[in-house]
Design brief:
Layout (H helix, E strand, L loop, with lengths): L1 E2 L8 H7 L9 H18 L4 E5 L3 H10 L7 E6 L2 H12 L3 E6 L8 H10 L5 E7 L1 E2 L4 E2 L2 H11 L3 E5 L11 H4 L3 E5 L11 E5 L1 H7 L11 H9 L9 H17 L1 H21 L15 E4 L6 H12 L2 E4 L9 E4 L6 H17 L2
Parallel strand pairs: 1-12, 3-4, 3-5, 5-8, 8-9
Antiparallel strand pairs: 2-10, 6-7, 9-10, 11-13, 12-13
Bound molecules: pyridoxal-5'-phosphate.
Amino acid sequence: MLMIPGPTPVPEKVLLAMAKHPIGHRSGDFSKIIGELNENLKWLHQTTNEVLTLCVSGTGAMEAGIINFLSAGDRVLVGNNGKFGDRWAKMSRAFGLQVEEITAEWGQPLNPETFKEKLEADTNKQIKAVIVTHSETSTGVLNDLKTINEYVKAHGEALIIVDAVTSLGAVNVPIDEWGLDVVASGSQKGYMIPPGLGFVSVSDKAWKAYETATLPKFYLDLAPYKKANGKNSSPFTPPINLMFGLKAALEMMREEGLENIFARHKHLTEVTRAGIKELGLPLFAADDCAALAVTAVMPDKHDAEAIRSNMSKKYDIALAGGQDHLKGKIFRIGHLGFASEADMLKGLAALKATLKQLG
Ligand SMILES: *Cc1c(COP(=O)(O)O)cnc(C)c1O
């Protein structure tokens, strides 16, 4: 039983949809599927922008979000309060961007006011992009993207580039309403399908920036994907069977409805946090910035790895560990995608038994 924040559990309906022989990706039948996927992806992303589907993991979608819209030497502000914010910073440096990090301690949310100060001080409009992780999976913290984005909009020039890998499909990310320029996500998180697909939505403002961006790109050059999208096609051979699965998953999501999906994730988060509090274990992130995809727990009196090991051996439940300096200090419970209250109650009961067994 996967209770990690990705890969997440895959519904049987999706597994069965993938258990088919591939069809030709240039066929009329597949073109029809791409057309339906594009329409449903726009629905899920709450946007009329193109949502481009790439054969990459989430990090590949992040990379596409950088190299298509920026040039070496561009000044960018990067929010870093965890493993994935840190990945944005490393990636931006790898491509020769001039990175200024806005940090917060792991477990704390980014302070939007720091973004405001930096953006207001930039009267020459040198900052080309503000790059943030919405839901910081490594710590279970949801950053205040809405407010940060308002300051980016007040700046006027900078693009907002967002890692929404564990927020899309769990919490409200109204791309058009907020005017988010580039939003990257990946299939093995909120989309209820296995790893292998990355998604990037691109605003008109970002396409304008694309025209002057000079970082090298080929496989992840988004213009051919956009052109192909317009013809219900794809520039290269796509992972056809994953797309069969995506078709089934998006149908399930449409049936449930966005509001219900968000409400379910909120409820799962509340159930999990209440259960953890009842067990007397400290939560790593505060209630008011809790991510709705993953809950991080810091069991101060127990070794987090011993808890994870017992959960796996005795109950066949996979929990995620801490990353970097949090290894052994925290464990993380995923409640993203195809997860129900019954799943959380089972996980919490097994955790209670585990604590007893560990003394
Ligand atoms: C999972 C995840 C990613 C992408 O990781 P991949 O292993 O490349 O799919 C990026 N950002 C966040 C916040 C994530 O949770």
